[in-house]
Amino acid sequence: MAVLGSGKANGACSLLHAAGIGYGASIGLDLPIAVRLLDRPSKRDVDDPDELLPAIIDAWLAGGFKLPNDLAKEELHWAIISQIPPRQGLKSSAATAIGALRALADATQSEVSDEEYVAMAAQAQLDSNVSLTGSIDDAWACLQPGWKLIDPQANNIAEGVLFEGDGPNMEQWLVMVVCRGERTKRPELEDFIPHQKAFQNSLEALQEMNELVALTWNGRGTVAVMNDVQGRRITNDAMVNGARAAGMSGSGNAIIAVAPRISKQSCDRLRKLFESNKDVVKVIETSFISIEREETM
Which residues fall within 8 angstroms of residue 93, CB to CB, at 6 or more apart? Predict the structure, then answer.
């Protein structure tokens, strides 16, 4: 068995759900995924219930690229090592798509622009029905540091980037990913209509480069869309116990809580809060993947 190519990406969380008011934004989390393209089946089964991986190859071919070593689609196989909990709203599908596309590029020594990666990832997610909107904002967050506000209805990927931000300082903020059971349903687009005000507030916060406020408002809107009483309670309790931001990511079920690393008391209080909650499966402590810039005098 030969490794034809490999690619990496990372998970992410929502700052503005793209189904809320038509604009979306996500930011990467330090939840890595590594994807390898093989010429023989891996010894470990790959969990792909939505058949995203075949859709990724189709999107690659539709993008005008070739497969490695003149192999047919059916002769290609995958191995995936991921630290992204699946079906939790942590962008595992977008990350898989970016990682797999990078593996295909590596295997064929192809020059692929960032816009092409995002376009193919979006197409694969739409074709496999794992996304309502194509998750263009998610693909950007799994590909690059920082965040971009995306208009998914734009004529092309480049024009769809309305503005962007560096993201919160990675060293200052602890991100707690509160995982519950896997979500049992996905919302429909019409479910978002009654809750547009919360998503509008999130957009306004992003326009002011206040990602933590955006994350919280987006989370409030999403738990309302999902009618998730438990998620609302966890979010509210996190804010009362020292989180500076808290909200559901994607369409759930994970809750993101953000606390200042310097406040050990707040971080410890949040850990105890989540550990005592029987509905919490596990808590992953990580950080945002932000753009680090040198301060100028």
Answer: 50, 52, 125, 128, 130, 131, 135, 138
Chunked mean pLDDT (size 10), the chain, 297 residues: 93 96 97 96 87 97 96 95 94 97 98 98 93 88 98 94 96 97 84 96 98 98 95 97 97 95 97 96 97 61
Selection from 7, 23, 14 nearest residue 120 by Cα: 7
Q: Which two tokens stand for residue 206?
A: 């992003």
DSSP label at 112?
Answer: -
Could you give the CA distance from residue 173 to residue 46 in angstroms, rounded to a whole number? Answer: 34
Q: Which domains does the chain possess? A: 3-165 (3.30.230.10), 173-286 (3.30.70.890)
DSSP assignment letter at 283: E
Give the DSSP H/E element, type plus range, for residue 163. strand 161-165
pTM of the model: 0.94
Q: How far is CA 31 from its chain centroid?
A: 10
285 near 29, Cβ under 8 Å? no
Contacts of 218-221 with CB under 8 Å at 24 or more apart are 218/14, 218/15, 218/16, 218/17, 218/20, 218/247, 218/248, 219/14, 219/246, 219/247, 219/248, 219/249, 219/255, 219/256, 220/247, 221/17, 221/20, 221/192, 221/195, 221/196, 221/197
Buried (b) or exposed (e) across 140-155, using 16+ Cβ within 10 A?
bbbbbbbbbbbbbeee
